[in-house]
Structure formats: C-alpha cells, structure tokens
Amino acid sequence: MNKYPINLTRLIHENLSVVMNFAYSRQPLAELLENEFIGEWEFLWKSLFEVSEEKANRAITELAVLLRILDDEEKITDYQKQTGNEWNCGKLELENKKLINLTFREFSNKIIHSETFSWEFKKDIPPRLICYARQDEKRKWNKAFVDLAGLAGLCGQFMS
C-alpha cells in the first residue's frame, strides 16, 4: 500500500508555525496595545487576538490529527517505547489528580477527544494549552497541560 497521499511533515510544520506565533506573540502585542493606544480599540483587539486565536485553534486541531496520522504511518510511538525515549509534550492530570507525562500520541488523543481546550497566558510563565475531558463520558483523566515548547521540539525533529 502507498504512503499517505499528502506531505504530513510539511503540514505539521505549517500548523506548528501558526500555533507558536499565536502563543508567543500575545504578550508583546498586549503590551503594544496597552502602551501605544489610548482608549478602547475593539476592532484592533479583534484583529490581533480573536482572529489569531481562531486560526491557532484550527491549527492545533489539525496538528493533532496530522501527528496521529504520522504516528500511524511511521510507528513513532512504538519506536519511542522500544528505546525508552517517549517525547514529553506536557502533563496529564488523571482523575485521581496525579500528574503524569503527556506523550505526543496522548497529546493528539486529548486534543481530538477533549470537550474543549483553552489557551493559558500568565506573566513570566510560558504559554500553554489546556485540554478538558468530556464530562458526559467516563474518562480516566481531567485535564491535559500541553507544553508548547515540548511540542515544538517534537515537531522540529521531522524533516519536510
């Protein structure tokens, strides 16, 4: 059988670019708005933050799906398990509140199967994404905290 008919790693890099640019430009843009503009700039705010967040939400969703496909094609998770080097993309909070490492396969699963997700921006702390488990089903996890730098490090290893 032939390989998947699109250049997965190229699309992974494109989506990662959107996510990282959104996440890491937010604080400087907020400071720009606060320091350079007086009064309420509703449509500038929308242009700088709401539009880019919508694009980042789509990009992180596409990234999760593309990583799942790439993992299925290339058996990356199997290889990482065999070598004992599973890539850490954050932390997973289980239903008992215990935190464990979030592997890249689990990152994809949590984005795909979460009820929702949100971006967290705090001063002096790197931005991150938080996925929330669906409440209508019995899940073994509550939240996934995605380390964007860890995710970038994973994606940066793939050739495109």
Describe the structure.
- This protein is of the alpha+beta class.
- It has one domain.
- Helices cover 55% and strands 21% of the residues.
- Strands 2-1-5-4-3 form a 5-stranded antiparallel β-sheet.
The value of Rg in angstroms is 17 Å
What low-confidence regions span 5 or more consecutive residues with pLDDT below 50? none
* Average pLDDT, all residues: 93
Count of distinct strands: 5
Shape: globular
Strand line-up across the major sheet: 2-1-5-4-3
- Largest sheet data: 5 strands, antiparallel
Oligomer type = single chain
Q: How many separate domains make up the residues?
A: 1
Strand content: 15-25%
H/E topology pattern: HHHEEHEEEH
Binned, the helix content reads: 55-70%
Q: Roughly how many Å apart are the termini? A: 22 Å
Count of alpha/pi helices? 5
**What class do helices, strands and sheet pairing give?**
alpha+beta
Q: Can I get a quick summary?
A:
The chain is of the alpha+beta class and 160 residues long. It is built from 5 helices and 5 strands; from the N terminus they run αααββαβββα. The protein has one domain.
